[in-house]
Amino acid sequence: MHTDTDALILIDIQNDFCPGGALAVKDGDAVVEPANDLAAHFNTVILTQDWHPAGHLSFASAHPGHRPYDMVQMPYGPQMLWPDHCVQGSAGAAFHPGLAPAVEKAQLVVRKGFRPHIDSYSAFFENDKVTPTGLAGALRERGIHRIYLAGLATDYCVAYSATDAARLGFEALIVEDACRAIDLHGSLTAARRDWMAAGVRSVSVADVLALAAPLASVA
């Protein structure tokens, strides 16, 4: 097992982000198996869940004359408009059914994007970069210093969460082969540049499991 100062955060592994969903990430369901494998090796597992009210202002449908993936200006800055997705209580907002082992092990679910007028990519802050979710405090109270992140999508919610984690003083590592990207207009390259500048490192599932193996064999 990883130490008690490590945590695994699984980002938005929900039906709407998987094939057939309203905002499907290509091969999004491919993260489910590695997410479960990773969760088995951490004592602290946290899930995030996109949780939008109907008519959320990040939805293109809330902006007559606009289409999904248009950029608009919000009071807090530029905002990508998305198809309606992860509406509270809908099947699309539910965790992927294959994620059940990780869901069962998770101690905390952080719901984000529930405020109607502001989106939330990061697990730590709304898109105004000021309003906190409370996750940082929860991690500090648990004595967590190092965070591994996996899930959907690499270039949006995973990248924003990892970058914020690093800026908040946590050691942040993205398990990149346990993530999948949207990659709109070079967004993955830009996200990688930003997270590297913030001090976030990329690792593989094999790297993470290898670190856990010696401790697991002693247990």
From TrEMBL:
<comment type="similarity">
    <text>Belongs to the isochorismatase family.</text>
</comment>
<dbReference type="GO" id="GO:0046872">
    <property type="term" value="F:metal ion binding"/>
</dbReference>
<dbReference type="InterPro" id="IPR036380">
    <property type="entry name" value="Isochorismatase-like_sf"/>
</dbReference>
<protein>
    <recommendedName>
        <fullName>Nicotinamidase</fullName>
        <ecNumber>3.5.1.19</ecNumber>
    </recommendedName>
</protein>
<keyword id="KW-0662">Pyridine nucleotide biosynthesis</keyword>
<dbReference type="GO" id="GO:0008936">
    <property type="term" value="F:nicotinamidase activity"/>
</dbReference>
<dbReference type="GO" id="GO:0019363">
    <property type="term" value="P:pyridine nucleotide biosynthetic process"/>
</dbReference>
<keyword id="KW-0378">Hydrolase</keyword>
<dbReference type="InterPro" id="IPR052347">
    <property type="entry name" value="Isochorismatase_Nicotinamidase"/>
</dbReference>
<keyword id="KW-0479">Metal-binding</keyword>
<dbReference type="InterPro" id="IPR000868">
    <property type="entry name" value="Isochorismatase-like_dom"/>
</dbReference>
<feature type="domain" description="Isochorismatase-like">
    <location>
        <begin position="7"/>
        <end position="187"/>
    </location>
</feature>
<dbReference type="Pfam" id="PF00857">
    <property type="entry name" value="Isochorismatase"/>
</dbReference>
<comment type="pathway">
    <text>Cofactor biosynthesis; nicotinate biosynthesis; nicotinate from nicotinamide: step 1/1.</text>
</comment>
